[in-house]
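The data layer described in this paper is built around a simple, fixed record for each protein. We quote a single record here, exactly as it is kept in our systems:
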Amino acid sequence: MRVNKQRFRRPQAVDPGTRIRPVFEDFHLLRMEGDYEYPRHQHTNYEVILVDRGPYRSELNGEQLTLVDGQVLVIKPGDWHQDHLRDGQRHYVLHFRLVGATAGEPPTPLFRSDVSPAAQLCQGDYSRDAFFMRELRREAEEEARHSPAIQDSLLEALFWRIARGLPNSALSEAFRRLPQVEAQREMIAAVFHRHLHGNPTVVELAAKARMSPRHLTTLCRAMFGEGPARFLLQLKLQRAEAMLRYRSQSVKEVSEALGFANPYHFSRVFKRVYGRPPSQRQAPVRPSPRSSSPN
């Protein structure tokens, strides 16, 4: 017998997906029978045009553009746009907006404010990515449970492929910095996760993260909304809930494993955050086969 196993790991370079999120609004497939000059209009959100059968011609901010099969154009909020639609052409139009990763966080702009229309064209052939459009349509037609979440997930995958195809010089400085910011965010979170079983000081955590305590505090508040001590406690309680719910561990075992002073202290903190004691989050104890036997 032979087992052939291929492992595909997550790339080490961190993508900025957790700090910016596209939200699906609508899309349509446009098929032309005859010619039509679409009125000039200004966009309020992002629009993606993926050409299925070209050529597709338009004017974007006063510049004439021509796209062939498989090309993608990304139109940003505020752009002035006019389609020159011709008989036989077919293309997908997708509308979305960008939001921050957390509530109230302003979205990071995709493009520089002075980007040229030609730089809003993606480099490469995106014909295969019409798959995402077809799946978005399927979810819209089925209107099944979780369809909005699936549509947002499909859009997110398509968004990052499209962003990867845009010229780096066209992207805003804040957007270009996102991979480095997210890499630092993940590094800090990893340091904290490695110390959930103890009670390290801010100085000790900062040393592990190779930065000053003041810088660590500033970054924690900016990235996680809490200072180091409260962020560590937040992670401890999240781990505690998982241990209680899925591992059937006792309150005492969880308290000791996560470095709380005693079960009473743990229970008090847990109840203050979750509104009920940890004993109510424990998974039910399953009876053994012998004890459940009718005899």
Q: What stands out?
A: The two ends are 45 Å apart (CA to CA). The chain has two domains: 17-171, 194-281. Residues 12-18, 284-295 have pLDDT under 50 and may be disordered.
